[in-house]
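Quick review question:
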């Protein structure tokens, strides 16, 4: 019973398709998978991950901060219109303060990286590149 399943899975057609796949994919893979390009692949991946994280963080800060600022302004309007609306002044000021902090956070990070650490927000090639002695 074992020989039948092995012979079915290793039929001539399967072996031919596997050999053709290997023959056609080998030239494609040699340009991608060689030992000299590992630092370039790592550098590209690092850039993409850092850019994606910074875009997500910026989007979160602007969307949530803008929402808090808008809700704070609307709450001020409702409190002015009806003082018994149920929203306290402390909650309104807290929403406005948190919204302002979130909106200003990306600018604060960029300014701090330029002034305190005297560096850009991105990693340079020297910090990322692997160097081997001869």
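Suggested answer, residue by residue:
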């Amino acid at each position: 019973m074992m020989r039948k399943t092995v012979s079915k899975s290793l039929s001539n057609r399967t072996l031919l398709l596997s050999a053709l796949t290997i023959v056609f994919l080998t030239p494609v893979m040699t340009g991608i998978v060689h030992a000299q390009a590992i630092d370039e692949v790592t550098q590209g991946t690092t850039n993409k991950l850092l850019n994606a994280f910074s875009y997500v963080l910026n989007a979160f800060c602007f969307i949530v901060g803008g929402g808090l600022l808008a809700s704070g302004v609307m709450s001020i309007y409702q409190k002015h219109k009806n003082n018994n609306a149920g929203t306290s002044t402390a909650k309104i000021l807290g929403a406005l303060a948190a919204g302002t902090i979130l909106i200003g956070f990306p600018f604060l990070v960029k300014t701090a990286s330029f002034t305190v650490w005297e560096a850009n927000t991105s990693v340079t090639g020297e910090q990322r590149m692997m160097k081997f002695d001869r």
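Why it works: The first helix runs from residue 2 to 9. Residues 69-115 form one domain.
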